[in-house]
Amino acid sequence: MAARIPAEERLTNLVVALMATEIGLTKQQILDNVSGYRQRADAGTRSDALEKMFERDKDELRALGVPIETIGDAADPNDLREARYRIPQAEYDLPGDIEFSPAELAVLRLAGSVWSAESVSGDAQSGVRKIRALGIDGDEPIIGFAPRITARDAAFAPLQDAIERRRVVSFDYLKPGEDAPRRRRIRPLALVDYEARWHVYGVDVDIEEDRTFLLSRIVGDVVVSATTFDAALREGAGERALSGLERVAAENSALLEVTPGTEAALRLGRRATPAAQGIHVPFVDLHILADELASYGPEVRVVEPAPLRDAVISRLRAVAEAHTDAEVSA
What we know:
Blueprint: H1 7-19, E1 25-26, H2 27-33, H3 38-42, H4 47-63, E2 69-71, E3 84-86, H5 89-92, H6 102-113, H7 122-133, H8 156-165, E4 167-173, E5 182-194, E6 197-204, E7 209-214, E8 218-228, H9 237-251, E9 253-258, H10 263-269, E10 273-275, E11 278-282, H11 286-295, E12 300-304, H12 306-329
Helix pairs in contact: 6-7, 11-12
């Protein structure tokens, strides 16, 4: 009978083994030597069953944020028959000179826990595990209520996975005013939340330029390719993305009149500056802002720019016509 090594112990042994090698281990070396696989092999478990177990373990560790790197044949990187696997310590270890106070540990754990289960990134899960390893009880309550962040865009999860695995992706993207979506291929570097909407920032492979895409305009599935890119490209990508969006917003401003005490006044006021006739609200995308302003109905009026005012009026007329048609058909 195969030795009963708990799955958690087998995964831990696999992490230790992959972190201890610079050149990586082949699948056969792992199955022959890592505790948890070796005992099952000695007990007569079939090699194909062991290989499937390893693939499941590898996928589970990656889902938890462990950066397992696959090294293919140098002459043909796509040939994985003799692939080696390793965990680059520089991407997984916390720097040795970092120290945290108990209060700082508590705040870091809270930051990692605010994500909802379906949206949490492997990086966040990995960070929470490392924080717990530094001495904070994972179940210790630190505040009475923690906010939850949920990503509703279907493209979020595959893009997040592609960023962590450094994979080029492709998707169809439909811009306002265009009749059909265009195929885009990018090296995804960061997902950022700006003006309550998710964007992916990366390098457009076809033109080799940085671009930012709104997730809600991605049509259909995100296709993750086998092509990888340099992990160094991700360094500071989130900051670059937000800086670029802020520059665009600084160049575009709407003058609005808003009814005091309304939802519009509360939400818009958070990012507005006072003006003689109302408030100035910076924006990145005219169509996105028009959608938001139309949702407030009579609580807000657009003074300028004229294209924004026209876009809001067009949306309100469409709503009114839809309700009129519904009443007539009833």
